[in-house]
Inverse folding.
């Protein structure tokens, strides 16, 4: 059983800086990393009735700061699915997001630059639920932080500006499961359960010594905030697969969209250096330019389209036209490297990984942070079940259930996204034909398309 005397130590909430030894002590759970996933996990541990008596410490490397919504949008956004919305609603975070800003996606169109093939999704495919919600990273983190610091949560301490110098982790044969977190200022924290939410370069994962499968995509993601040529309802997400990588527009409001353009390192660096007008021209070309076509591909896709029409199925001929871009918001352009990563183990004695510490994906499907929030939901569910049945909080049974559940979901999703990236990165006629016909058939067969949407929202 976990130590009940630890729960008696909770007299009041404590927030400190990394140079303050006030919170130095012992905890049931320590979360290393206060990003979106780490903060959401801390919030869930405070909100869940069965978990609210645990003493929890959240270590965040950045200093505490007050966030204010600015007129201009941030260039870093996330596309949240319905399951993430449900999680945020259960934590009373979503109402904070709505009071700031978000943009629903009610329609999505994905098409190939090397053929006429496309696939579209709409809210009607999800019983009129929105396909996704575009939220700025800062807005979502602020909303989570507001609820985390509310009077409803009394068992979570937070250390801002926390600089971790190392970990002493328990061994398999240790009778006492206890991790020690050593800080650069000399503080030491001990816990029974250590959770690594410290990103793709996770120090917790490295301390575990588990194998981490990773590779770089030789691509960078160029992001920016865009001004559209004319105001529209703008609830459509657009993605075009170019030979160099996908370019996507995510709606922000009636006149603005967020750009995520995956391209080669050299091209990304060139795009960042271009004057604003030339950058806008390059982006409009990427969305509208007619790329060289192969007659065999056009002939086959045309024949497949006619067969679908005769069968009374959608042939993909009806399509929306993407918006034109008028300008790019000043100083909003940036780029980040793209990579794949997966930890072969999510757990070790007294340790669990969540979010990017456990897995990393290409942004083309917008699933990265949603996988992390799925980790949070499953981890807290299994954690609560373990405590309800009288298991110790470090018991291997519930930790293994968590790992098994998440890997069964995350690994196929990661591999499917990686396969899509590789399929569309090659401009070889047989592959272009195969992916084009596959896209046509998937778009025409509603049960298949619905299954894809269902998978994307879990």
């Amino acid at each position: 059983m976990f130590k009940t005397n630890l729960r008696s130590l909770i007299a009041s909430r404590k927030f400190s800086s990394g140079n303050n030894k006030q919170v130095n002590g012992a905890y049931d759970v320590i979360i290393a990393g206060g990003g979106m996933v780490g903060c959401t996990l801390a919030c869930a541990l405070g909100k869940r009735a069965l978990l609210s008596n645990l003493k929890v410490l959240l270590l965040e490397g950045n200093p505490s700061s007050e966030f204010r919504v600015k007129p201009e949008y941030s260039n870093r956004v996330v596309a949240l699915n319905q399951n993430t919305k449900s999680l945020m609603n259960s934590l009373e975070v979503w109402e904070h997001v709505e009071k700031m800003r978000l943009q629903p996606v009610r329609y999505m169109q994905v098409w190939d630059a090397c053929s006429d093939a496309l696939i579209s999704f709409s809210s009607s495919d999800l019983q009129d639920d929105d396909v996704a919600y575009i939220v700025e990273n800062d807005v979502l983190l602020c909303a989570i932080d507001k609820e985390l610091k509310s009077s409803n949560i009394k068992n979570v301490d937070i250390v801002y500006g926390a600089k971790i110098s190392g970990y002493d982790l328990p061994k398999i044969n240790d009778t006492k499961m206890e991790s020690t977190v050593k800080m650069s200022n000399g503080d030491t924290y001990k816990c029974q359960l250590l959770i690594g939410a410290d990103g793709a370069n996770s120090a917790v994962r490295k301390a575990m010594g588990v194998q981490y499968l990773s590779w770089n995509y030789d691509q960078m993601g160029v992001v920016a905030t865009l001004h559209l040529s004319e105001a529209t309802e703008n609830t459509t997400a657009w993605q075009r697969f170019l030979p160099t990588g996908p370019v996507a527009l995510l709606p922000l409001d009636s006149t603005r969209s967020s750009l995520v353009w995956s391209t080669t390192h050299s091209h990304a660096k060139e795009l960042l250096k271009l004057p604003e007008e030339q950058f806008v021209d390059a982006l409009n070309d990427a969305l509208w330019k007619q790329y060289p076509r192969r007659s065999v591909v056009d002939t086959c896709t045309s024949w497949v389209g006619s067969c679908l029409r005769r069968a009374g199925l959608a042939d993909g001929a009806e399509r929306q036209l993407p918006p034109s871009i008028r300008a790019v918001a000043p100083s909003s352009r940036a780029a980040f490297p793209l990579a794949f990563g997966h930890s072969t183990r999510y757990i070790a004695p007294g340790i669990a990984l969540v979010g990017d510490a456990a897995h990393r994906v290409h942004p083309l499907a917008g699933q990265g942070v949603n996988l992390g929030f799925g980790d949070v939901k499953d981890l807290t569910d299994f954690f609560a079940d373990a405590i309800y049945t009288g298991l110790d909080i470090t018991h291997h049974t519930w930790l293994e259930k968590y790992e098994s559940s998440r890997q069964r979901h995350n690994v196929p999703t990661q591999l499917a996204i990686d396969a899509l990236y590789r399929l569309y990165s090659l401009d070889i006629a047989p592959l272009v034909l195969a992916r084009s016909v596959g896209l046509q058939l998937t778009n025409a067969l509603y049960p298949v398309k619905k299954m894809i949407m269902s998978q994307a929202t879990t």
Q: What stands out?
A: The chain has 13 helices and 21 strands. Residues 4-456 form a domain with the FAD/NAD(P)-binding domain fold (CATH 3.50.50.60).
